[in-house]
Amino acid sequence: MGIDLETLFILAVLAFILFGPEKLPEYAATLGKFVAKMRQASSEMTRQYQDQNPFRYPPEPTLPPTPVSTCPHCQQTVTLDFAFCPKCGHRLKEDHYPPPPQPPLES
Known about the structure:
The chain is mainly alpha-helical. It has one helix spanning about 5-50; strands at about 70, 75-80.
């Protein structure tokens, strides 16, 4: 639901004829202040309703912070899921790769 350009033009011409060029800016400013107050009151009522609404969704749970460590070579802070330091390239975990498979025992 919007006002197209033709309707807006007709309303502007009618307002110019009814109020005259002297009073039109004053009435437009008053109308703008009224619209601003109505928007503020509407947003205030919406916020109050949302605060008191018993059917609102609970807040999203926050994830725990990712544990971090430092590289022993360059002291770069990295998360524990890194196998190599992104700054210096040294290996951070020795157990990153699984051990090689053992040959089957022959009996």
